[in-house]
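Sequence design from tokenized structure. All designs in this work follow the same two-part layout: the structure record, then the generated sequence. An example of the structure record is given first.
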């Protein structure tokens, strides 16, 4: 079967127990600024992850100019 992940060598297979260890978070972008010092188009993003992490600054690079 073509859609069977067991036959897709590009996807690593992990156990469910290992999947439960993955820390996946959602956040809200609260500010964005162009990162002028970058050689290629890049942005600084401030993302609010809520408690207990709060707002974190992230650098996002490699995007096409708008």
């Amino acid at each position: 079967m073509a859609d069977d992940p067991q036959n897709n060598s590009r996807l690593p297979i992990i156990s469910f127990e290992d999947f439960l260890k993955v820390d996946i978070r959602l956040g809200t972008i609260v500010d964005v600024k162009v990162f002028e010092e970058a050689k290629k188009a890049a942005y600084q993003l401030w993302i609010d992850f809520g408690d207990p992490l709060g707002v974190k600054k992230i650098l996002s690079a490699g995007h096409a100019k708008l």
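The first strand starts at residue 28 and ends at 34. We note this feature because it recurs in several other targets discussed in the main text.
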